[in-house]
Structures are given as C-alpha cells and as structure tokens.
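Before going further, learn to read the protein records used in this course. Taken together, the tokens spell out the fold as the letters spell out the chain. A record is reproduced here so that you can trace the correspondence yourselves:

***
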Amino acid sequence: MAAGTEPDGSSTSDEEWERFLRESAAGTPDAPKEPSARAREVTERLRAESGRGRTEGWRSYTPAQPKQPKQPKQAKRRTGWYVFGLLASLGLLAVALAPGRVVDLFSGDDPDSPSAAAETARPTEPPPSEAAQRPTKDEPFRGSPAAGWANGAAGITVPKARAVGWMSEAEVERALDRSRDFLVASSLDRRVLRGERPEKAIALINPHQEDVQSILKTAFRSPSEKNDPLLLFSRFRPSRTHLVGDIVKTRGLLTYREGKRGALQVTADVTYVYPATRADADGDDEIVRTIVRRELVMSWDDPGKVITEPGTFSIVSNTFDMTNGGCGAPTGYLTPPFGTDRRADATGTEMDPYDRSVPVGRDDPSEDECGRATRS
C-alpha cells in the first residue's frame, strides 16, 4: 500500500503530507490528520520489525522510542532495560547550571534548620551526618539532612535556558518548566500521593510512545515488577499510610543537552523525602521517612521527525532508588514499614539515601532483597 492510501482507494498527495508535517511542527490547530491506514501500516511494520529487548531490570527501564514519520525503511529502536546507574554519565554531558526559576508547592519551613544552598551540580560527597534525633509530627524531618532542604518544587533547580537543537531559547524555557511540572504532578501532587491516578502527569507523556502507554494502561490495575506505577509516580494507600504535614522535602536539579534527531533531552535527578505514619496510629507517634530518588530522562522531540503531540515528551529511561518504601510483591503503593515490619526490613544492601554524589542505582539491591538505609 502506498503512503497515504486509504481503504477506499483515495490517497493523500505528497504536497498534503508535507503540509501536515510543516503544520504539525508549527503547532497549527487545524493541521490535517495523518491517514489512519498509513498509521496502521507503520504500526504493523514496526511491530513486526521490533524484537524484544533484554530482560527488564527492577526499578529501571528504557522504553522504545516513538515512531518517526517519513522514515519508511527505519525500524523503531528498542533498547531494552538498562542495568542500574547506566545513565550516570549523562550528568557529565549537561550544560553548566545556574539557579533557575523555582516555585514552592507547599508552604512552611523548619525555622531551626539551616537551609542548604540550591543544588546546581552533582555534589562530590554525601551530606554530613546529623545528630540522632527522633522525628515528631511537628518536626517530621528532625535529625535528617532533609531538614535543611527546600519544600516541594522549590528544591528542584531549573537551569537557564538556551537554544538547543530544533528549539529556540524560549521553547527550551517552556520545555524545562513543563519537565518540572511533570515532577510536581508525579511525585508531589497531594492527590497523587493519596493514591489517585496522576492524570496531569500522564497528559505530559507522548501518547504515541507505545511501550509507556502500555505500562500506564495496566500498572494501576494490575501492578507488577515490570508494570509498576512506582516506576514513575509516588503513591501511598490512604487506608494504610498518612503523610505527616503538608511538606515534602526535595533536592535535585534538571540538566539538558541536545539529543537524537535534534531533540531537547532533559535529565531530572531529584530526591524526595516523605514523612509518614500509620493511618490507624491511635496515639502512636512513630514516623518513618520514605526516601525516593528518581532519575528520569525526557526527550522533547521535533514533531517533524518524531510522531508526538505538542507539549508532550517521550521517556528515554527511568531509574529510581527507594528506602523505607516497602518490600515484597508490588502493590502499586509505597508502603513504609512500621513497628515489627521495620525491623524485618533491616536486611539487605546498605545504602545512604541522602548521598547524591553517587549515580542513581549504584547501591541498588538484587531482586531478592530490599535496600537498607544507613540513615533516614
């Protein structure tokens, strides 16, 4: 079947197809739609040509890249799932950073804790140890390096924009803002933290990236190690766990460079600290801090070269470390261990969840054990 041919024998001319690509790249609202028969033909061909990648790794994945229009002889590339820490070298390729535009999602600070300067590059050593102090409901970050961290989105450093690839400086600035918006919508939004579906975050992901969309369709209904909402989103089950207060402490930054086919490739490396208590505490003041560090690589693709939607990005890869988030079969929720469960989780590979000087996943445990935090 020729490109652009419909079942009734009609076809889309080369001039119309080129106009479709130009207007899609320009974001024209009434740009013509790609013929459905062509879309089906490309999809079936890519599915036939794409082989399965390597066995997926735990807490890390690299989805297939989205389809590219006007490249009929090039199969969609599947890279499989990388081992932990593979993307650490991306930070060395990032541009120099300066403290960027930040917003504070939640109000409130710990007035007795010194504030750490915004992170503008990966640190060279872990933060110093704090005096052993038990957290309280009034001071849930007491005795933790996070006590001096910023609140919510204010802890995520956004760099100064410059033109990259197919994007102008202003377009890069908007893409960086939207990249931060995804982090807020996926790991800081209060409704998502209470277990609701992260609709705002999902809306920012390229709907044409088939591997990711497949995960999103099944992860919330039937979570598993390969299809787990926690790969991208932070969620707690309200019937089991309550977050303490309205503040989530964060520390991290965005970096960017030119990616494949002139795309803007943004890497987010952020640590989130969630203080939690039992939902049925009944006077029990035990507080456990769940700490999640995520490294997410996003590609803001040129719509003239990759099939995408305006204002959405494709996921290149994702890796995360988690401590005090639960062990055992995936449930789709972070499950902080309390009481005897906490003692049972005190096994496995030791890791410092506050050490941001090492790549994400460096101390990741095997599939048969959980990481044991040296401090929380």
Observations:
- Residues 193 and 235 are 4 Å apart (CA to CA).
- Residues 83-373 form one domain.
- Confidence is low (pLDDT under 50) at residues 1-10, 31-35, 46-57, 70-112.
